[in-house]
Prior knowledge:
single chain, mainly alpha, 3 helices, 78% helix
Amino acid sequence: MIENGLGLLxxxxxxxxxxxxxxxLWFTLRRLPGHPHPALWVAGSFVLRLAVSLTGFYVIxxxxxxxxxxxxxxxxxxxxxxxxxRYLRPTPESRV
Length: 96
């Protein structure tokens, strides 16, 4: 029973990490055209998103180094990417 609960927490954690990572990427790219230092903006965003994501995956991995939990978290991380890609896709009216 505890393994199931930890698996669900791993899925939730992977989903939240994916939302953070890919929403942060979307936010960075939306603000990029008018930014005075675009290279610094992109590099800083990447380092922040990567540090938070890797730390989150390390916490999900746990002290017992459970690869099943890590796999669940990675799958939901990618699922968050797919959902956000479909949700944040520009509509034909917004392409000007």
